[in-house]
């Protein structure tokens, strides 16, 4: 028998110290830029364009929780109820939802995500569902919930479940998650006595952004631009993991930036901002 060839382990490119420092500044991962108020949080979201809510350093991309911690190695504890930083992040999230200045919902892969209005048209071009496509792309339960909200405009969870006649709690939750991922429904407030979310139509809060038509290739390029502006450098698969785009599509977005001269590609799958766009090269 011929010996089997030894497979070489693929080494994933690492983020250099220079670009980790760049991310510390842009993603508020240092104590001097720590997010402490809802105003700070909304300014942070506007700066980065989009960010996860409660992810920690084990997940790629910007995170409101990490910005509240003000350090790049922040890890969410198991007992989040007793963690002051997790509690503050949760409180800030509720304030931001009530203000309605940025989009908040469970988007790709069910991840709670904030999106600044300037980036919202590009997210909607990728993940949004147009009214003409709802019958084909939305489940029956999701359509029932959506029909009620289009009549009532805003409603609490319990009342919405009753009016939509989606009796099964798990099915109702799946329907709401489906509508959030389709960028049709968002929470509009959190009430604590008794605890419930209020839900409303996303287009009611962000009519211009969600009605704007954008070609898909343009949307992918602008999402890539937004991420690279904050990251300084991105490695193979990172943009796809952060956004939920497929790897081929994320790659096309990054290569479009290279074609513009906005970014360089020193290695396959590795992209860096050119010096004139805000970062320095090694």
Explain what this protein looks like in three dimensions.
Helices cover 48% and strands 14% of the residues. The radius of gyration is 20 Å and the shape is globular. It has 3 domains: 17-116, no CATH class; 128-211, Orthogonal Bundle (Arc Repressor Mutant, subunit A), CATH 1.10.10.10; 216-277, Winged helix-like DNA-binding domain superfamily/Winged helix DNA-binding domain (Arc Repressor Mutant, subunit A, Orthogonal Bundle). It has helices spanning 17-26, 38-48, 64-69, 84-99, 120-127, 134-137, 140-152, 157-164, 169-181, 202-205, 207-211, 216-231, 238-243, 247-260; strands spanning 50-52, 103-106, 112-115, 154-156, 185-192, 195-201, 233-234, 263-267, 270-273. It has 14 helices and 9 strands. By secondary structure, the protein is an alpha+beta fold. The strands form 3 sheets. A 3-stranded antiparallel beta sheet has the order 1-3-2. Strands 4-6-5 form a 3-stranded antiparallel beta sheet. A 3-stranded antiparallel beta sheet has the order 7-9-8, covered by helices on one side.
**Mind describing the biggest β-sheet?**
3 strands, antiparallel
- How many domains is the backbone divided into? 3
Give a count of the beta strands, DSSP E runs of length 2 or more: 9
Mean pLDDT: 91
Helix tally equals 14
Helix/strand-derived category reads alpha+beta
What is the rounded distance between the termini?
Answer: 48 Å
Helix content: 40-55%
Rg, please?
20 Å
Strands in their spatial order, largest beta sheet: 1-3-2
Query: Unreliable runs, pLDDT <50, ≥5 residues?
Result: 6-10
The global form is globular
Order of helices and strands: HHEHHEEHHHEHHEEHHHEHHEE
Q: Strand-residue fraction?
A: 5-15%
């Amino acid at each position: 028998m011929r010996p089997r060839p030894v497979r070489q382990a693929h080494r994933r490119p690492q983020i250099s110290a220079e670009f980790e420092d760049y991310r510390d500044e842009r993603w508020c991962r240092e104590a001097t830029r720590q997010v402490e108020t809802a105003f700070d949080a909304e300014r942070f979201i506007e700066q980065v364009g989009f960010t996860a809510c409660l992810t920690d350093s084990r997940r790629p991309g910007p995170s409101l929780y990490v910005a509240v911690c003000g350090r790049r190695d922040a890890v969410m504890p198991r007992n989040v109820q007793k963690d002051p930083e997790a509690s503050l992040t949760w409180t800030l999230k509720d304030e931001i939802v009530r203000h309605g200045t940025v989009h908040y919902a469970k988007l790709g892969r069910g991840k709670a995500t904030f999106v600044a209005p300037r980036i919202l048209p590009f997210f909607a071009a990728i993940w949004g569902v147009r009214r003409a496509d709802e019958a084909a792309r939305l489940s029956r339960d999701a359509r029932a919930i959506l029909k009620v909200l289009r009549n009532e405009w805003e409603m609490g969870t319990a009342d919405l479940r009753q009016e939509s006649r989606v009796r099964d709690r798990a099915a109702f939750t799946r329907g709401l998650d489906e509508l959030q991922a389709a960028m049709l429904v968002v929470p509009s407030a959190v009430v604590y006595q008794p605890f419930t979310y209020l839900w409303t139509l996303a287009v009611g809060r962000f009519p211009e952004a969600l009605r704007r038509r954008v070609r898909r290739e343009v949307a992918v390029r602008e999402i890539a631009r937004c991420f690279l502006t904050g990251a300084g450098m991105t490695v193979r698969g990172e943009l796809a993991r952060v956004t939920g785009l497929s790897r081929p599509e994320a790659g096309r977005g990054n290569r479009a930036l290279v074609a513009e001269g906005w970014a360089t590609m020193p290695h396959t799958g590795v992209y860096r901002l050119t010096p004139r766009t805000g970062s320095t090269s090694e």
